[in-house]
Amino acid sequence: MALIELQNVSRAFGKGDERVVAVDTVSFTIEEGDVLCLVGESGCGKSTTGKMVAGLLEPTAGQVLFDGQDIAKMDKQAFQRYRHAVQIIHQDPYASLNPTQTVRQMITRPLLRHKKAKGREGAEAHAVELLEIVDLTPAEDFMNKYPHQLSGGQRQRVSVARALTVEPRFIVADEAVSMVDVSIRVSLLNMLSRLKEEFDVTFLFITHDLALAKYFAWQGRISVMYLGRIVEDGPTQRVVMDPRHPYTQALLAAVPEADPELARRKRRIELRSADIPSLLDLPPGCTFNPRCPYVVTGECDVEVPPLDPIPEGGRVACPVRSSISIQLVEETPGGSVHTDADISQYQPDG
Amino acid sequence: MSNESQLIWKHEAGSGTPLSLRNVHIIYGARKGDVQAVRGVDLDLRAGESIALIGESGSGKTTLGLGIVRLLVKSADISQGEIIYRRNGTEVNVLDLDKKELREFRWKECSMVFQSALNAFNPVLRVWDQMRDTAQSHGWKDKKAIRQRSLDLLGFVQLDAERVIDAYPHELSGGMRQRVLIALSLLLDPQVLILDEPTTALDILTQRTIIDLLRKLKEEQHFTMIFISHDLAIAAELADRIATMYAGRIVELGSADDIFYRPRHPYTLGLIRAVPKVVGGFQELFSIPGSPPDLIDLPSGCKFHPRCPYATDKCKTEEPDLVTVGREHEAACWHWREVEEELQTNPLHSV
Amino acid sequence: MGSVFLGAVQSMGATLRIMSYNKVGFTGFIAVMLILFMSFIGPFFVPLDTETKVDQIYQTPSAEHWMGTDHQGRDIFSQIVNGGKDVIIVAVVAGALSTFIAVTFGTLAGFAGGRIDAFVVSVTDIVLTIPQLPLLLVLAALIKLNNIVYLGIILGALGWPALLRAVRSQALSLKQRDFVEAARALDLGTTHIIFREIVPNMMTYIIISFALAMTGAIYAQVALVLFGLVPFSGSNWGVMLSLAWVRGAIYFKDSIWYIMMPVAAIVILQLSVVTMTRSLELVFNPRLRSGE
């Protein structure tokens, strides 16, 4: 049984002319111990989906199942078990911690309330352990700190420690590292990966950064969302190395690379329009059709393409292109390994 | 583009040095003490080149950019140094300009494009009002000519000029606003463009259009540009030369290829090894231990030593200056030779 | 026991130091303290002068009468000293009550939403649309308002709607914040969320509102006295002002002191309370509390 399963989940906001469907009939499953990365640009519905998985937002249609049970139909006890099993880490380290509380208060209060520790002293000791798990050491130094006394990376670690107070089985990480400095990002990701291994935590990792998704979910899966729908999913390695949906291909081609040579050699995919359609006025058929370079008029702009499985793994919502691979980087003659041997050794004068 | 011939601001490729920074120091006054945001930066910007200032939060890169056009907040002070600006054989120290001269300088000589494109606009003015006001306050009289130039520039940044010119800022998407802002900054034909995080907060596909536009500006118009970014990818895509900043100083300066494939400063190397690529197979990433320094209470010696794997006792006491480590390549590290050796055994690969 | 006392003194010292970061606010705080001292301790040293002295009517300030004398030759200074207590009690009672109502129900409405919110908002709108002063006039005619605590309660019971709306909108925006969502995910309960997550982040706002509610109550009670709807019992700055008015003090050049002194006392009290909030805000700022 999957730990989390979404069955045709939709979420709309607003009424009448203002009504937008942020998430449109999304289905996926996450097995215990797995990592699923939800990737897409802003407004694609990835955060809304994350909130629904975490039970912080109700779907307007469809079901979210936890351990095979519909969370909307759970009794109080079952819901509480679910509530504690699923935690969320937010994006903004400056908004996710209450500025008026110390780290001690943030961590010991849930411990005491849910009887995860015996008394004040037990809670203190447990809090120290949790801070050590997230690499905030020496933990005692952090207990009396207010959020403003911590760096962005440290705040995110406190958020994780706070989530761990209820011993979750599943964590929704909503852009959890995108606002943290580059040099610290990797250690945060590695810390989250450790939770995966040591505590069997299952992850829904939401990000707009495909390179991060690739790194974090190399052994897991990626789902690409566009305007509220999943357009492609599958094992990370397949999606990244052999993308099939034109939108996934465009995204991967567009990502700027931290490598000048690669930046020069990367293929461009010219879209027919640079502008993303408004959720208030979505195009008929495949919502990517007005921008898609491979559009087949009379087909793509009529019917919503089904998300069909492909033999290489995963699903692609594009009958036109789902069987065609493309190359993202142009081959260059002569290889491209850069070593110091490329230039003559420099000798400073004198 | 048919209008391109009318865009009078095609620059001559590469001669001269429009901007020179000499030992620039910038300090912020704070309750706890002085924040040493920029500590002695020397940099020559050559005509037609694009240079990227990279570094993390607190490295001083944005402060330096704001300092060049003198747009620092009141509590900040350029306590030392010179900012020399040159055009057509004349030379001024930007620090000597008065208020009126500075206003001219910021539009006609050295224009800055800010990070948050929405805040940079007055929400009740149309794009046209904004452009007309700017041109008129700098002595343009001919409304027709202003409009034509505005349309040309909006076209150049690949916008539907006729539609966008009469739009209000909120009617435009983030990427469109960023492009309008770039067009606006070009209105009075500046020589130098400073772009602070030009693509941060934009979506990937939009980001790509801005990068391609800036590349066009660089390759076709030979614009002299300074990019300020925490994102190494932007530097890799757009910069001819890259300056790595740490704790208010340039710690490494070199061509883009030197910085990405032959870095000599451990911090630059650390950054490169921390950033994943999207293309290709799995790549191991390494983080830099510790956190960025407290700018009020900086470490002794080399400011990077508490986080540096190469640090020795010398690094704790003596702060290294930039030394030549290659052709047009400088680094401020006592142990750059060891970094070089390390890279010979573990080279940085391009995919 | 001793250490508890010492701790209290230490934290009071720390609080005072934080308050002193804002010079204007701290001046307001000192002024409030002086006014409180004058009004509550002062009467023991300066008894109210009730003796009519026909030969000393409308005197200007002198060594004997620091603030001059009134239409019956009584000392104005003694009236100022004795007339503050009632004004302050009414203001504090009214301010506390309206702030309490506004914060509790405003936060609840904002956080709970749905029917609770709709109900609270509609009650607020009804109270808000009733013109205050005429209602007070009617009430004063019906109820004998000679008990100052009752007066404070009535003023407080009418003074909360504007504040409630503001608190509610603050709560609505705080509710969206990530840390509140995290608290929901951690199943910390509604009481915790309201009093531990939301209200502490509104403290600055609550303090300012409390000060404004107090000044509103001061105005209202002075107005009631001026209209003659609150009995002239004892001495009170409002009563002084009213008497001065009734006696036509504004028409006599010499009587300027009689009418100006209570006005000055009221204005200084209000100004001090409002400026004091600048310092009180700092006390609830964790940046300063943590010693930075």
The stretches of 5 or more residues of chain C where confidence is low (pLDDT under 50) are: none
Biggest sheet features of chain C: none
Unreliable residue stretches of chain B: 1-10
SS summary, helix count of chain B: 12
Structural class of chain B: alpha/beta
Instruction: Work out the largest interface and the residue count of each chain.
Output: A-B, 54 and 63 residues
Count of helices of chain C?
Answer: 15
- Taken from the alpha-carbon principal axes, the silhouette of chain C is globular
What structural class is derived from the secondary structure elements of chain C?
A: mainly alpha
Q: Approximately what portion of the residues of chain B adopt beta-strand conformation?
A: 15-25%
Total E-strand runs of chain C: 0
What is the C-level CATH assignment of the largest domain in chain B? Alpha Beta
What can you tell me about this protein's structure?
The complex is a heterotrimer of chains A (350), B (351) and C (292). Helices cover 31% and strands 19% of the residues of chain A. Chain A has a domain at 4-239: Rossmann fold (3-Layer(aba) Sandwich), CATH 3.40.50.300. Chain A is of the alpha/beta class. Chain A starts with a strand and ends in a 34-residue tail after the last strand. Chain B is α/β, with parallel strands linked by helices. Chain B is 33% helix and 23% strand. Chain B has helices spanning 61-68, 99-109, 127-137, 143-156, 161-164, 174-186, 204-221, 232-238, 256-261, 266-274, 313-317, 336-345, and strands spanning 19-29, 34-45, 50-54, 76-87, 90-93, 110-113, 192-196, 224-229, 241-246, 249-255, 323-326, 329-331. In chain B, strand 4 and strand 5 form a beta hairpin. Chain B starts with 18 loop residues before the first strand and ends in a 6-residue tail after the last helix. Mean pLDDT of chain B is 88; it is low at 1-10. Chain C has 292 residues and is mostly helical. Classes of the chains: A alpha/beta (350), B alpha/beta (351), C mainly alpha (292). At the A-B interface, helix 6, helix 7, helix 8, helix 10 and helix 11 of A face helix 7, helix 8, helix 9, helix 10 and strand 11 of B.
Features:
heterotrimer; A: 350 residues; alpha/beta; Rossmann fold; four-stranded antiparallel sheet; 11 helices; globular; B: 351 residues; 2 domains; 12 strands; 33% helix; 23% strand
